Amino acid sequence: MEEERLNIIWLEGQDCAGCTISIKQASNPTLIDILTGAIPGLEGLKLIYHPTLMFEWGEDAAKILVDAADGKYDPFVLILEGAIPDESKASPGVFCVLGEYEGEVLKLSETVEKLAKRCAAAVAIGTCASYGGVPHGEPNPTGARGLLDFLGKDWKSSLGLPVICIPGCPPRPDNIVEVLGHAVLAAKEIAPLPELDEWHRPIYLYGATAHELCPICGYYSGGIDAHAFGEVGCLGALGCKGIITNCNASNMWMDGYGGCTRTGVPCFGCAHPDFPDAPTSPFFAKAPVGPFVTETIRGTLGHLKMGLERLKRRVI
């Protein structure tokens, strides 16, 4: 593949544009760094379609998608923000339209199907795009699905790459740009993708739970619970779902600042594949007791082992 060029097509489905807002806050690297080629290996990128950031509108914008489906913008990375509805449930109406070209309505689901046949890589940004998210919540009247379910876990791009998911509502800004960088490098055949887990999440970002990374988890270890907002202590009694949610946003949002539990807010489990349904709902209901019991037993045995190790004389 020619290293000097790679197009990016960013579609928005059933979403709130929160992931677009998030990526504009990225700092390591910034979105500008990526799009201007300031990062080695990421030169030659062109964002040819993004409904919020592009200059084109109307049929000029829709024509880009039509041309892309015909191969005029190969090679390209397909990015989806938002869930994909089941248009068969909308008949005779429609749920999600990207635009209109020469009298033809461009439905999101049909456009994704066409572009997925040609894309060099496909990235789902946010929980809605990854697993369905809020639009997929019960009773799911539109039949919303994430890209992983829509294309299938066994789907591969034209370069043999699987769907890459970056869950979160929205994800951390740096999570988005880092994974997009990995996808671009893989699409350019410069570097392999990072290892993905069973939910197609990069393990280096989503391998630990929000609880394990929580900056106030010491309160949990010390048995100190907060029972009202503003109190000092672990937020588990206030409904924190960090113990069942793989996510790295609890300790930092951007530039060393922020983070859900770091600012006194319980984790709502927004990066969980089942969000916003059980076991992440209701938001302020306590997480299932099982993980707490398991961790307590494991922690007790671990602390006992560590204590015994400290009784041994250290040889220097």
Describe this structure in words.
This protein has 316 residues and is of the alpha/beta class. Helix content is 31%, strand content 11%. The chain is globular and about 75 Å long.
Largest sheet strand order:
2-1-3-6-7
User: Please, how many domains?
Assistant: 2
- Which percent range fits the helix content? 25-40%
- Terminal Cα span: 55 Å
Q: What does the largest sheet look like?
A: 5 strands, parallel
Mean pLDDT: 91
H-E order: EHHEHEEEHEHHHEHHHHH
Shape: globular
Helix count? 12
SSE class: alpha/beta
Strand elements, count? 7
CATH superfamily of the largest domain: NADH:ubiquinone oxidoreductase-like, 20kDa subunit
Radius of gyration: 22 Å
Beta-strand content bin:
5-15%
Q: Which residues sit in consecutive blocks of at least 5 with pLDDT less than 50?
A: none
CATH names the topology of the largest domain as Rossmann fold
Q: What's the CATH architecture name of the largest domain?
A: 3-Layer(aba) Sandwich
CATH class of the largest domain: Alpha Beta
